[in-house]
Amino acid sequence: MKTKKLYYLITIEKEASLSKAARKLSVSQPALSKFLAGAEVRLGTPLFQRSDRHLTPTPQGCAVLESARKILDVQDRMMSNIRMVSGLQRTTIRLATAPNRGAMLYSQIYNRFSRHFPSVKLGLTELYASGQAEAVRRGQVDIAIGAGDFSDEVEDYAFAQEEILVSLPAAHPLASAAKIRVNNLKESAFLLQSPEHSIRQIADRLFKEAGISPLIVFESGDVLLLDSLMHQGVGVGFVSQAHVFPSQDVAYRPLDPPVYQTLHIRFPKGHALSPADCYLIRLLMEERLSDPRYTAIHTKKLDTFTSFLKSVPDQDFLPQPSDSGDTPVMVRPQDISFDTEVLRYILGIAEEGSLTGAADRFYLSQPALSRYLHSVESLVGTPLFNRSHNRLVPTNAGIVFANSARNILQLEDDLKRSVQIFPGRIL
User: Fold this and answer.
1) Interatomic CA distance for residues 306 and 159, integer angstroms
2) Maximum Cα–Cα distance for the chain, whole Å?
3) What is the pTM of this model?
4) What are the tens digits of pLDDT across the range 208-251?
């Protein structure tokens, strides 16, 4: 099995059409159709149902596709880890997000980003929105996502807004009100975010406009702690709609007039966004806007920027040695293909510690096995073995490769077993 063929199956699933998948893969439709038919014969089961020119995975196909995604994820991580331990070129994007919610956002987009750009390390810095623009300007972070005011010192795109609500104990006299004016809260005890928090800055502005001096009984930068105290009825607070956790202990009411805060993407002025930068920004925006509690903002400037982001290919091009040894050839992850039988050969070399022992195990000639090893080392871009006292000892990259090869081979076995649990297979 060649791992590139698994990418073909996943693309067919995604596009739900052989013609669209063929265009995406830059292959002819007859060739892709022949591949799919051959895969179904080899696995002994139909992988897709065909109706009205639309392809839908069968139950057997779903099982195969799940295994295929796992294999390709292992392959991507292997290539990324090999580059890291070998000291090959590696890029880092330093992302800044607000504490707590930002870390959750990072975890939601991390796998998707790494799958497309395995050579790019995604770092995380938690910063309140009030400090993000300065951190971007000073070059401490590359991209920031957060709320707050517009900054003209960086590239700043407000792309969404969320409503600010009042959080009141269920027993508060205004808990049943449809809307609440800030000056109606002047006798209330407040739980507020620390001064650097964007919602606290909005609250301070509202207090100033209403001409009141609030009684602040507690303030903290830990929004989870504040939320817990609000649910215990300690006081009144302000929360973004996207941070509401409904409870019978707390009532959330809109302000009159309504108040919103905007969500921004920020990066340095004059910075030429790389494909990885663009894909990351798209993921961040799409993830936030998939939450119905955020409302998209549309401006001519933002729409132009969004169109630009969509025009940039969302794929990583990895430096690989050329045949001449001069200028590296740029290869996409989906173009990297390992034959799993060859993975067994390389794993055998690692286990035997010699080409001779592995050749005997697999009934191959030593020159043939040597050619297989050379082709794999050329593909990953670094030696997998060093010679020591007539033995082949895996390099750090070789150790990573061997461990990943074991995982891929195990997943391949799981894939083959998965199609056997479905009775009544049709060839």
Assistant:
1) 10
2) 88
3) 0.57
4) 999 999 999 999 888 788 888 988 889 999 998 877 877 888 99
Q: 162-193: per-residue pLDDT in tens? A: 999 999 999 999 999 999 999 999 999 999 99
> Are 169 and 247 contacting, i.e. CB atoms less than 8 angstroms apart?
no
Dist. CA 282–CA 380, nearest whole Å: 29
Tokens 């497309």, residue?
A: 116
The answer to whether the Cα torsion of 307, 311, 315, 318 is positive or negative is: negative
Structural contact between residues 422 and 59, judged by C-beta atoms closer than 8 angstroms: yes
The answer to whether 192 touches 216, Cβ cutoff 8 Å, is yes
Token couple for 132: 């993000």
At 35 the three-state DSSP class reads helix
Measured CA angle at 117 (ends 402, 333), to 5 deg: 55
Neighbours of 74 (CB within 10 A): 19
* Beta bridge mates, 169: 250
Q: What is the DSSP letter of 252?
A: E
Residue 190 CA to residue 187 CA, distance in Å, equals 9
Q: Pull the structure tokens for residue 425.
A: 């297979």
CA dist., res. 241 & res. 134, Å (int): 27
Tally of CB atoms within 10 A around 111: 11
